[in-house]
Write a structure and sequence with these properties.
About 40% of the residues lie in helices and about 15% in strands. By secondary structure, the chain is an alpha+beta fold. The protein has two domains: about 100 residues, 3-Layer(aba) Sandwich (Rossmann fold), CATH 3.40.50; about 70 residues, rRNA adenine dimethylase, C-terminal domain (Helicase, Ruva Protein, domain 3). Helix 3 links the parallel strand 1 and strand 2.
Length: about 210
């Protein structure tokens, strides 16, 4: 087992090898009272998004993440308005990502069928936009991206199972064109829309 081999290799050093599920382990359990840490790793495609959210929402948060992910995932993490996704909103709410460099398949043995990229995420001391409660915020964002090819008034109506006219009213209150697609919105616009939805009582939210 790799964990056993690593434990032997790093015996008598200050490296501690922990054998466990990264999605289940709490950073607080690993740090022993310290709050300052960096996170680095090569993230498998199928757990990249939940693993990022696990540590971005953890207490304590890392000061910085440096991760290698599939190239397409890296592009989604650093995307700007026009190409945003649920993943880019989730990461950019907590920190500022930048794509450092691409990693060709030839860098691995055996070479995979996909390219990779290394991304740095500098974690902000507070949320980068005002969001009073992240859970309903992400409920709204997920609803918005439920049918990303549709206009926002329709994708929100579909995701929250409400009347499109209601969704249009929240969008207008937030100063957002209801005909935009969800990928066009900035982080600030999602925060404004979340506040408008909250002001309306969050109709359609799963309880």
């Amino acid at each position: 087992m790799l964990a056993d081999e690593l434990s032997t290799a790093f015996d008598s050093t200050n490296v501690e090898v922990v054998h466990g599920d990264a999605l289940e382990i709490s950073p607080a359990d690993l740090l022993g009272g310290s709050n300052a840490y960096l996170l680095a790793g090569n993230l498998p495609f199928n757990i990249a998004q939940p693993l990022l959210r696990h540590y971005l929402e953890a207490q304590p948060q890392p000061d910085r993440m440096v991760i290698m992910v599939q190239s397409e995932v890296a592009d989604r993490i650093v995307a700007q308005p026009g190409q945003m996704s649920l993943l880019s909103v989730a990461v950019q709410l907590y920190g500022e990502p930048q794509l450092l460099f691409r990693v060709p398949a030839s860098a691995f043995r055996p070479p995979p069928k996909v390219r990779s990229a290394v991304v740095r995420i500098d974690i902000a001391p507070d949320l980068r936009v005002r969001v009073d409660d992240t859970e309903p915020f992400f409920d709204l964002v997920r609803a918005g991206f439920s049918t990303r090819r549709k206009q926002l008034r329709n994708s929100l109506a579909n995701g929250l199972e409400v009347d499109p006219a209601a969704a249009e009213k929240w969008l207008e209150e937030a100063g957002i064109d209801p005909t935009l697609r969800p990928q066009a919105l900035s982080l600030e616009q999602w925060a404004s829309l979340s506040q408008a939805w909250t002001n309306a009582g969050r109709p359609g939210q799963q309880r």
